[in-house]
Amino acid sequence: METTTIVLVLASMCAGAVLVLLASAYRSLQAKVNVTEYTIEQMELQKQVEERFNRLYNDVDTRVDSLIQMIDDREEEVEDVLDEIRDMIDTTEGRIDSRADKLWAEIEKIEETLNK
Predict the structure, then answer these.
(1) What angle do CA 24, 30, 36 make, to 5 degrees?
(2) What pLDDT shows up at residue 52?
């Protein structure tokens, strides 16, 4: 009976040690799984951040291109208006020169008349 008791005590101690080892292994695996889950979550979060950045970058790039196109269009409109103004100035200068020539001709006629 003493032998049985000793065997039972030793078996209980071994079983206890095995349970402690199993619990330790379980905690170690659980920590590794948590780290793996954390790493996966970090990778997913990084991917989401990159996708959002790319969307924002593309949106900004599209808007910049749109603004550049609008500026180019306005520049063409301004050039057209400036060309029209230059044409008006040239026409006005031509009229002024023509009228000045007529006035000088009249002045010369008057001077000739006065000198006679």
Answers:
(1) 140
(2) 93
